[in-house]
From TrEMBL:
Coiled-coil stretches noted in the UniProt entry, renumbered to this chain: none
Catalytic residues identified in the record: D150 (proton acceptor)
Keyword Nuclease appears in the UniProt entry: no
GO cellular component terms, A-Z: plasma membrane
GO molecular function, one term: protein serine/threonine kinase activity
Highest taxon, organism lineage: Eukaryota
Record keywords, A-Z: ATP-binding, Kinase, Magnesium, Metal-binding, Nucleotide-binding, Serine/threonine-protein kinase, Transferase
Binding site for ATP: K52
SMART domains: S_TKc
Domain Protein kinase: 24-296
Entry protein name: Protein kinase domain-containing protein
Length: 344
């Protein structure tokens, strides 16, 4: 883990950020999150940027301050096409600001309902995001292995070509040899996406991210956000019931009916459903990537007939469905405090 001293080269002056955002003008404000306001800016050096300004009332040593330091420390270590790029940061005059490459299509949650976003585009977005998470869980090397802890469609950003990138690492946990399971004392995650066992036990594992990602997959399929309950029940319970009753046809985004190849829908919904199972039974992100690749391949295959009656096909295919169980090696319950990532 880099110390803040080693990251000095990432510093951007407050003056440069202020110039780029028209002195943080309201017209430049593009969003508001838990960290504070987000502004679009144009910088001579970096081009179009997104500027996250920590709310002053979150203050020093607050959760926001910890998230600020975690985000810088983590993102400076990651280089992957499906992970958002941190260009720099500013810690000056009591301001704490993160500067990212601007992703022109914004976050995935804003596009869920869009009739213009095709099934193939949706599949590619999910596959990109899954590759980003797979990188964090498996590919980055033991030393930098990371649980994201706040996987949701608002934290998946889209560039001008609809390539997806995982963002918002502030809540992430990492450390040398992050264990497969630990108890978190910090509040984390977002309602609608948090796995049920975390709410009751406080346990976090890579499978917690997998659960949240499964929720995102169903958001993409149904074209609605998971933070809103449906029929007085959490979104994930609603989709689980529909999957089990084989009535998915009635809950998928109406604009997708005509486009989805039934085999693709089968592969996609099956892996999404597996992600929502109990911790041990959920797939790894590696397996999620493989199944999404299959869903994309099935969609591109020209010979498959389109069918409006996916549920009938699902009933036939479900006998052969992807149903392996995945074991997880639990090495113990440990706490990785975020303090200490940086010298104080
Ligand atoms: N790099 C970026 N490029 C373009 N838009 C961005 C970028 N980063 C953030 N945004 C926009 O700003 C909004 C707010 O982002 P932010 O991450 O602060 O909040 P959030 O994701 O809604 O919630 P949380 O605080 O839990 O992450 C996003 O939904 C997105 O639309
Ligand atoms: Mg966010």
């Amino acid at each position: 883990m880099s110390s803040i001293e080693e990251l000095k080269h990432l510093q951007i002056s407050l003056q440069d950020i202020s110039d780029a955002t028209n002195d943080f003008s309201d017209e430049n404000c593009i969003g508001l999150g838990g960290f504070g306001q987000v502004y679009k800016g144009i910088s001579e050096k970096y081009g179009t940027i997104a500027v996250k300004r920590l709310s002053r009332d979150l203050g020093e040593h607050s959760q926001g301050d910890r998230e600020f330091k975690t985000e810088i420390a983590l993102l400076s270590n990651y280089k992957h096409e499906n992970i958002v790029s941190l260009l720099g940061y500013c810690d000056e005059d009591g301001e704490k600001i993160l500067v990212y490459k601007y992703e022109s299509q914004g976050s995935l949650d804003k596009h869920l309902k869009s009739a213009d976003l095709t099934w193939t585009q949706r599949l590619n977005i999910c596959l990109d995001a899954a590759r980003g998470l797979k990188y964090l869980h498996h590919d980055v090397g033991a030393e930098h292995r990371t649980l994201h802890r706040d996987v949701k469609s608002a934290n998946i950003l889209l560039d001008e070509n609809w390539n997806a990138k995982i963002s918002d690492f502030g809540l992430s946990k990492k450390g040398p040899n992050v264990p497969d399971s630990f108890v978190s004392s910090n509040p984390c995650g977002t309602k609608g996406y948090i796995c049920p066992e975390y709410e009751t036990t406080g346990y976090l594992t890579p499978k917690s991210d997998v659960f949240s990602f499964g929720v995102v997959l169903f958001e993409v399929l149904c074209g609605r956000p998971a933070y809103a309950p449906v029929d007085d029940q959490p979104f994930y319970i609603w989709v689980q019931k529909s999957y089990k009753r084989k009535t998915l046809n009635s809950i998928i985004h109406s604009g997708l009916h005509e486009q989805i190849n039934p085999a693709s829908l089968h592969a996609f919904s099956t892996i999404a459903y597996q992600c929502l199972k109990n911790g041990e039974e959920r797939p790894t992100m590696k397996e999620v990537v493989e199944q999404l690749q299959k869903a994309l391949g099935d969609q591109m295959a020209p010979s498959e007939p389109r069918s409006d009656d996916f549920d009938a096909l699902h009933q036939r295919q479900s006998r052969n469905r992807f149903d392996s169980t995945f074991s997880m090696h639990v090495v113990g319950i440990r706490e990785y405090p975020l303090e200490g990532l940086f010298p104080t």
